[in-house]
Design brief:
Elements (H helix, E strand, L loop, with lengths): L4 E4 L4 E7 L4 H8 L2 E7 L5 E11 L2 H12 L24 E13 L1 H6 L5 E4 L3
Antiparallel strand pairs: 1-2, 2-5, 3-4, 4-5, 5-6
Length: 126
């Protein structure tokens, strides 16, 4: 299970995942670089983000990603060095995966359960 950190600059929503570039997930993304992330609440509200992904390979981007998680809000923020092999941003097993949403979908549980509420969908233009 992965917990992205999301940032919105007023125009663009960007997600960040700290993960290993040598993981099975990385191998899967090499073949299909798009992924979906879904959030669920006990009242059955859901939100899905369909995203393009890009690995951040530069030293500056990796350091910024490390710091983003080290300084991140609970519960997604954590000290990346607690992961074995992640001793620093330049550790070979540490990677930052950038998420670029192309579609967002929010569905209130009341819509599914009682037909009440509004399905919200956003798609990236272009």
């Amino acid at each position: 299970m992965l917990h992205p950190i999301w940032e919105f600059d007023g125009d663009t929503l960007t997600g960040w995942i700290a993960t290993s570039p040598a993981s099975p997930k990385a191998a899967d993304l090499a073949h299909e670089s798009r992924l979906s992330i879904t959030y669920w609440a006990p009242d059955h509200d859901t939100c899905t983000a369909d995203c393009d992904t890009v690995w951040e390979h530069g030293a500056t981007e990796r350091a910024a990603g490390w710091q983003r998680f080290a300084d991140g809000p609970a519960p997604v923020g954590y000290d990346p060095s607690i992961i074995p092999g992640w001793t620093a941003p330049d550790s070979p097993s540490f990677g930052i995966l950038r998420l670029e949403p192309v579609r967002l979908r929010v569905m209130p549980g009341s819509l599914m359960m009682a037909g009440v509420g509004e399905l919200l969908t956003w798609k990236k233009s272009g």
